[in-house]
Amino acid sequence: MIRPESPIRPEGNTTFLDGTTWCVARPSASQAELQRALDWACGIGRVDCSVIEKHGDCYEPDTIWSHASFAFNAYYQTNGNNRIACYFGGTATLTKINPSYGTCSYDVSKSEVSSARSLAEYKPRWMWLMCIGLLLFLYRRS
């Protein structure tokens, strides 16, 4: 159940992380704390929590820890993949172990799977254009 009247906003520092990481619920967090953080992530945090609802791919196991872990990670991955997006009032922690299981797939950062062209692919064209520009400049000057 989503209860946005008791929000827990992400807090922490903004240090970006190296490597692939996932955000999961802290095992020591209380169920009440996890529920508040889960409600915030699925409400104000705008995470698509349909996969942790009944009949969703990540509904089982039907535990607050499992559902919160999925929602925390979805928020973390879509909000910069940085520590501040994986705090949830101290109820979340980072892991380098992929928590995906069975049909439940936890997202990785969009930058990890980006199809954008690298700078090296643009460099030859850029250098060529600079050479032409320089030649035109020298030609007009003479």
List the secondary-structure elements in sequence, H or E. EHHEH
How far apart, in Å, are the first and last alpha carbons? 76 Å
Strand content: 5-15%
Radius of gyration: 22 Å
Binned, the helix content reads 25-40%
Low-confidence segments, given as residue ranges, are: 1-17, 112-122
Number of alpha- plus pi-helical segments: 3
Shape: elongated
How many beta-strand elements?
2
Mean pLDDT over the residues: 80
Q: What's the main sheet like?
A: 2 strands, antiparallel
Q: How does the helix and strand content classify structurally? A: mainly alpha
Order of strands in the sheet with the most strands? 1-2
What does this structure look like?
Keywords: Cell membrane, Disulfide bond, Glycoprotein, GPI-anchor, Lipoprotein, Membrane, Signal. It is a lipid-anchor; GPI-anchor. Residues 21-106 form the X8 domain. The protein has helices at 31-42, 64-78, 119-141; strands at 22-25, 92-95. With 142 residues, the protein is mainly α. The chain has a domain at 22-115. It has a two-stranded antiparallel ribbon. α1 (31-42) packs across α2. The model is unreliable at 1-17 and 112-122 (pLDDT under 50).
